[in-house]
Amino acid sequence: MSTSTTLLALLEPGPAYGYTLKQNYDRWFARRRPLAFGQVYSTLARLTRDGLADQVEVESGHGPDRRLYRITAQGVGVVDEWVFAPEPPEASAAGTLHARVTVALLSGRDPADVLARQREAHLTRMRALQAQRRGSTGPELLAVTYELAHLDADLRWIEESGARLGAVREQLVAAREGDDDARG
Amino acid sequence: MSTSTTLLALLEPGPAYGYTLKQNYDRWFARRRPLAFGQVYSTLARLTRDGLADQVEVESGHGPDRRLYRITAQGVGVVDEWVFAPEPPEASAAGTLHARVTVALLSGRDPADVLARQREAHLTRMRALQAQRRGSTGPELLAVTYELAHLDADLRWIEESGARLGAVREQLVAAREGDDDARG
DNA sequence: GGCGACTATACACCAGGCGTATACGCCGAG
DNA sequence: CTCGGCGTATACGCCTGGTGTATAGTCGCC
C-alpha cells in the first residue's frame, strides 16, 4: 500500500506521465525503496481502475502514446488519510532480526552469534551514515537520522537481549516440555 | 522471503503437517506477522518444488490426505544462512513514518501534524507494552523489548525532526525551484 | 547512416498473501 | 438420533506488488 500511495501523492502537485513520475519518485524515495519502471505503469492502472487517478490526455504521434495522469478528489482523500493516520503497532517493528534470534533459539543455533554478526554489520553501517550525516541538510538529513535512530534501537536491543539469553532459553525449553504435541 | 524461511525453520525439529506447522508458527511469530492457513500450503508447495522440503508420507483414509513434510539438507542450509546473515542496511528502516513526513512536506500538508499524531499513537502503544512487559519473561519479553526499542527510536526521531522542520522545508523549496521540470 | 542514450509504455511472469470451499470426525443440545 | 458447530486438514482462485524484458520513436553525434 505504501508504494502505490506514495506514487499517488506525487501526482498531487499536478498531472504527470508515468515516466516523469518515476523520476520524481527516485528523487525523494529511491533511498528507501528502489522502484522499477514497470511497476509505475501497473500501479497507475490499478489507481485508475480504483478511481484514485484518471487519464487526462492521451498524446499520440511521436513514439508511444504519452498518457497524462491526474489525481482525483477521491485520490487526494486517500493520500490525506495515509499521511496523517499513525502506523498500526505491528508495523513498527517489522525487521527480521527478532525473528532470526527466535529461530536460533528454537533450533539450537547460537543466538549470541546471530546478535554478534548483526551488531558488527550495524556498527559498520552506522559509521558510514554518521560520516554522510555531517555533509547532509534538509530531507537527506531527515532520512539519514531516521535510519540511524533505528540502527541504534537494534543495538540497544542486542545488548539487552544478549545479557538475557540464558534465561530466555530456559523459559523456552520449559514451554516446549509442557507440550507433548503430535510430532512424528 | 522471511515468512517462507521461518516456516522452513519450524520444520527443523522434525517432520510436521501443514496444520501443526501453522499452529507452531502462531505460537512464536503471530505477534510479528499473522499468517493465513492458505499461505502455509502454497509456501510448502514452493519449498518442495525448490528442494528445500519434501513430502515424507501421505496418510489417506480419514478425511483429507494428511501430508507429512520434512526439511531437506539443502533447506537446513538456507535456514542457516538466513539466521546468521546480517540484515541488509535498507531493511533496517522499513517503516513508513519517514515516507509520510516527506509526502507531507512535498504536498503542503503540515508535517508537524503527522509527527504529533504518530507521537500520540506511539506513546499509547508504549504504555501498553510497558505494562505488559512487567509480566513477561523469556521469548515474550524479547519481543516486547524489541518493539519498545523501535518505538523509542521513532520518538527520538520525531523530536529531532520536529525541531528541524523549518530548515528542511526551505531546503526542499530551493531544490524544487532548481528544477523547471516538464510539468503540465 | 548508424549507434547509443533518453523518453515512454506494455506485457509476461513470479512470490506472497487473503478468502473461501471442501471433507471428515467428534460432541453436545434438543 | 440428528443437526449444527467446532477442530483437523488441505486445495484453489484471485489479487497486489515486484522484476525483467520487449517495443518504439527521437535526438545528437561521430
From TrEMBL, chains A, B:
SUPFAM superfamilies: Winged helix' DNA-binding domain. It comes from the Bacteria. Pfam families: PadR. InterPro entries: Tscrpt_reg_PadR_N (IPR005149), WH-like_DNA-bd_sf (IPR036388), WH_DNA-bd_sf (IPR036390). Residues 7-75 form the Transcription regulator PadR N-terminal domain. This is PadR family transcriptional regulator.
